Amino acid sequence: MFAYTPSNLNQTGLAITVSDQIDTSAPKNKGAEFLRAPESPSELAEAPKGATAVIVLGDGTIIWGRGIGAAGSSVGEVCFNTSMTGYQEILTDPSYAGQIITFTFPHIGNVGTNPEDSETITPVARGLILRADITEPGNWRDTQHLDGWLKSHNLVGVSGIDTRRLTRRIRDGGAPNGVICHAPDGVFDIPALLAEAQAWPGLEGMDLAKDVTCRQSYGWDETRWVLGSGFGKLENPKYNVVAIDYGIKLNILRCLASAGCKVTVVPASASAEDIMSHNPDGIFLSNGPGDPAATGEYAVPVLQDLLKTGKPIFGICLGHQLLARALGCTTSKMHQGHRGANQPVQDLETRRVEITSQNHGFAVDGKNLPKGVSETHVSLFDGSNEGIKWDGHPVFSVQYHPEASPGPTDSHYLFERFTKLMDEA
Known about the structure:
Elements: E1 3-4, E2 53-57, E3 62-69, E4 72-81, H1 87-91, E5 99-103, E6 127-129, H2 146-152, E7 156-159, H3 163-173, E8 177-182, H4 190-199, H5 209-212, E9 218-220, E10 222-226, E11 230-233, E12 239-245, H6 250-258, E13 261-267, H7 272-276, E14 282-285, H8 292-307, E15 313-316, H9 318-326, E16 331-347, E17 353-364, E18 373-379, E19 385-390, E20 395-398, H10 413-424
Parallel strand pairs: 1-3, 4-5, 5-6, 6-7, 12-13, 12-14, 14-15, 15-20
Antiparallel strand pairs: 2-3, 2-8, 3-7, 4-8, 9-13, 10-11, 16-17, 16-18, 18-19, 19-20
Helix pairs in contact: 8-9
């Protein structure tokens, strides 16, 4: 078991140093492998002065900090996100189900929160980890302090953490399972937290879409937010689209509506017959959390039936992975995943490079695509697959988030590509 222990838990979170638990004879700028292991979990059961929160990873690493948000504990996969904006959208993205998000950007909370920026009604992320204490808000759209918003959604957080070091650990060793615990009295049961972290099975093999999907179908006609007028309403729809909800973000629905689509959202468990009963011009496969192999147990047969209809199909994120599996491709767990709003992707047909918003821990195996399936986009970070198309058919998908909430708008054209396919069908 290893421990990062702040020796100075000050209010700014900027003067955090590691404690004498570290072996000072070890090389500098290295990870937790150079930290001294206590003889037993009970050795670190007592929190250092000022610590009201702790992170306990499945390998025994302990990181002390200050609690924010709700008191309590939460277990999940610890990942990191490099976005400089959009923390509320990130925390409410259903694709983060089962994950504890480490924010690499230090000024989290600086625009507060507001009802318009949530991507789902009830956040499903497991918690958050910050470098500094929550920044006081200074934005005209702010309606609630982030700390109060976290408490209202029962989200546990930890601040005062060396997030750079934790991020390097995830980068080098992969995303670990862990528990975060906020105890205002500073009393922690470290052995119990460690046992919880070690017992959590991890995201591989988990079908989380069933937990975040809608329970019944509903219609959508709200369009994108515009400065001065807010959200709009689609008055004269041109296309009838069915969106399969594997964990859909609200701004994806708004982008579809802004492209002229009247949208009917159906649960992830909807049958092909249910979907086709709406007589769609096109079918959209949404983002979502979890392992596509697990969700694919029931989703892939439905998609294979839908592929036979000849209807235009557009998938993103988990929808991309499920479509790929329906076409005979394979998927696998990534070492650390892609999570951020600055991910460069190249369109192999146009050679154009897009800066994209991404959040995924699984990927399509782009080097082993079956005949008739072409790779259309690749990551310029690691060469992993970012898009496919079914040759000769109006079917395509991308791994990233073209709605970009948060993030750049380089990929908004993909919604127009979808509507063009419906025009041509």
